[in-house]
Every structure is written in C-alpha cells, then in structure tokens.
C-alpha cells in the first residue's frame, strides 16, 4: 500500500469519507444560517451577536470551521497533485495555502469566542 504524507487521511478511502462528511457538515451549517436569516425579520447587530453567543451555535460553527479546514486540506492536495507537476513548487504552494487555511480557522476561533 502506498501512503503519502501530504494527505490528511491515511488512505484514499479515508480522504473520500472525510471530504464527504465535511461537505455534509458545511451544507447543514449553510442551511442553518439561511434558516436563521429567513425567520429573523429584523437583523441587527444585537440579534446577530445574541445568535453567535449561544453555545450550540458556537460549537456548530467550530465544527464547521474544522470541517472546512479538512475539506480544504484534502482538496488542495488533490488539485495541486494533479495540476502542479514541479515537486518543489507544489510543496511550497501546498504549505502556503494550508497555512492560510489554518490561519483562517484560528482567526475564526478567536473571533467566535470573543463574542
């Protein structure tokens, strides 16, 4: 069996399941936010802050951020492996883009728990 240190999962099947599961979590989160926007007639800063102050919303948002990171990590690896042939360039691009994705997740944690 061939393994690659650049993937998040251990095998292709594991990566496949992670990508699909993270997509489901992100889809549910989008539907949750759309539902909130539809049922909230007057969206103000106070309602938005109160919404994200709820512990359940914070946990769901954090789960979605982690799912987004896993989804992006695997997706970037697959796209860069397919389309960027020089190994050095591919490694640098993968490193930089994954650091950016990780920074987004960390900033999301900080912003979310600051509410």
Would you give an account of this structure?
It is a single chain. The protein is mainly α and 115 residues long. It has a single domain (12-113), classed as 3 helical TM bundles of succinate and fumarate reductases, CATH 1.20.1300.10. The protein has four helices and no strands. α1 crosses α3 (55-83). The longest helix is centred in the middle third of the chain and has 29 residues, at 55-83. The protein is elongated, with a radius of gyration of 17 Å. The mean pLDDT is 91.
SSE blueprint:
Blueprint: H1 12-39, H2 45-53, H3 55-83, H4 87-113
List keywords for this structure.
mainly alpha; iron; electron transfer activity; elongated; 115 residues; 3 helical TM bundles of succinate and fumarate reductases; metal-binding
Number of strands: 0
- Order of secondary-structure elements: HHHH
* Percent in helix: over 70%
- Can you identify the CATH superfamily? Fumarate reductase/succinate dehydrogenase, transmembrane subunit
Summarize the main sheet.
none
Q: Tally the helices.
A: 4
- Give unreliable regions as ranges: none
> Gap between N and C termini, in Å?
47 Å
Briefly summarize what is shown.
The chain has 115 residues and is mainly α.
